Write the structure tokens for this entry.
Amino acid sequence: MAAEASIPTTLFSGAWIVARREIRDQFRDWRILAPILLLTLFFPLLMNFTASQAVDFVGRYGAPIIGERLIPFLLMVVGFFPISISIVIALESFAGERERQTLEPLLATPLSDGQLYLGKTAASLVPPLAAAYLGITVYLIGLLVKVQWVPSLQLLIQILSLTTIQAMVMVSGAIVISSLTTSVRAANLLASFIIIPVAMLIMGESMIMFWGRYHILWWIVLALMLIAIVLTRMGLRLFNREELLARELDVLDLRGSGRRFWSSFLSDARNPVEWYGGLFQKSFKRIRFPILITSAILLIGFFVGYRQAAVFKLPAEIFQMNAFDKDWLMILREFGMLTPNGVVKILWANIRALILATILGVFTFGVVAEILLLVPLAITGYFAGSLTQAGLDASQYLTALVLPHAIIEVPAAILSGAAILQLGMAAISLPKGSSLGEGWTTSLAEWARISIGIVLPLLIAAAILEVFLTPRIAVWVLSGS
Amino acid sequence: MSSIEANSLCKKFGTFTAVDDVSLHVKPGEILALLGPNGAGKTTTIRMLASILKPTHGNAKIAGYDIEHEQEAVRSVVGLLTEQHGLYNRMRAGEYLDFFGSVYGLDSSMIQQRINTLLDEYKLQEFTNLRLGQYSKGMRQKLALVRALLHEPQVLLLDEPTSAMDPESAHHVRGSIVELRSADRAIIVCTHNLFEAEALADRIAIIRRGKIIANDSPLELKRMMVGDPVMELRLACSLDGALEHLPEGIVEIAAGDNWVRYSTSQADVVNPEILYSLAKAGIPVVTLSRVERSLEEVYLQVVSEDDSQEGTIDGR
């Protein structure tokens, strides 16, 4: 009987079947069709009128450059407005289908999760992008006729690339949001997480274009491509049958999350010895790749700082050799060094920095946390480079002023950075069968295990060494130099 | 060989166990009703068998394909009627079925042939010009059934096929399901409707709190769960003096002025004996008949036993 049924063989053939149906369905919905037509045909003509009026106006007052810069900006705007509809279509396609309960028959077919994802993504992208390209064409034809303006090939490619990649970012973001909700209403509310950053991006792009720094647009295209890749990976992780059907309600289960966190934090340990055993055997194993990445980043930061000392030179006289004597220790004591109060101050500063790095790391896939941790190493590298530039032995100074506490503080920073990176990447590297909430809570527990179990004791030890030992070693090693 | 072989299927959502150690075997040509209240785990079981959800433990084979490792093959031999019809309101029947035919990899001439046959069979041909949003509930459910049958699946999984339908539509859909029985198709019908389960199924598996607590034919379940058949004797006169003619070993259940109900495991021996004895004593008999026991009694009995014992009764 079932011999007649087969599976759409390629990823694209299956995806195209899904996309074709959805595109057809969109063209039956006047709420989608009307704005697309309006933004494709009427809006470019309006922009033509605006551009020609602006060129005339500023030309009359001897400021033609404003007109010249306005026209490419409006070209970008003409492309952007139709693609803004892609968010609405994506939210409808993913969250809407789920809300209307039409998704399950589709999930029961032989199509793979990837085919469904790709098909729906294509359906959300193709009509708005086609409308955007058409709108740009209408705008350019209008400009050619009215003010005889033709864009350079590079500008045209930049605008088309920006339009396309922005649509991809918005759609992949909308899919992530839709996968986390069960209703279009909830998805629309969460869509502000896409709309606000994209609006800020457009403002930034407009400033770049008004300043005529068009080459920066390529960097924006590159950054957006990376974001689209990250969001697509995240969407593919979240858009699967298991996750779609297991999520019944948008409820915040704090108690359940708390239980999961506590269970992952304890990791079945019955006493501190077992807990530490698990920490060293399991947690270290899990974050070994982030440890490598963080170590490499910190090392790069040090060497970049070192190299920059040759570019931004410090005057040699600021390195006073005879400054490291007993008077120096007295001055340090006034600032709380060589006292328990100093330990508390340094420890608190380090903890604050790690908390800030964690918060920022969570929202930036760990990127900003790595940058924050890189800065002190870059400064240290710059200090070492400046000493070398001044003809001094940098290794002697580093050994005296940095190494006594850095030998503990740097491993703490690497471990902390690795744990934050792991936490930040949790959303795009979910274990199979885990929901976003489950995966994130488990990673948060892992972060807490490493932070409380290893990083905090190391930071306490480093602060004690920095306050009581480093100044004395500095005096011992450097006072006679 | 069974078309559906599920062994110790278990599904957990976080800490909640939706399906716990469910084993089911359905042969080709057989209809199994998965009977249970809302939230018993019927839909989750069906979704696992349709390779939409992965089991946490256990395994199952559908038409020889493993539900975990051959998911796409499983989905290509299963026809699933979901509890919600899941139709696209702006589409028309032909276009809708054409889409699903393409998804199942059927060629276009085969799709057209199947669409025409099935729409005729389910009397939907005259409504092909309407948008699906304009269909009545019964028509939608029938079309959803057509969708599930489009690729002639070897296994049909029907999740609450008549839920929230008016009696007439439900009657039509039930009739359609009975017609689907064929020598090489295994069917599971999920329902919380006792009448539906009894009317449609060769076997009934009662599921409660994710566990199968009984699994047998409706008749055997009745026999097992509510005991020996109950007989009702009605007389044309008062019962006084008649009871002494009832043989020993029968259990009197209830009695009125001119009637008595008793249960016996040997009705074919006991009943002629009673009639002979009464006739000999000149006591006029109006009727002696078997009292029909409803599946509802069986269900309530099984459920109450499950409540008190937390045990499993499996007649297989």
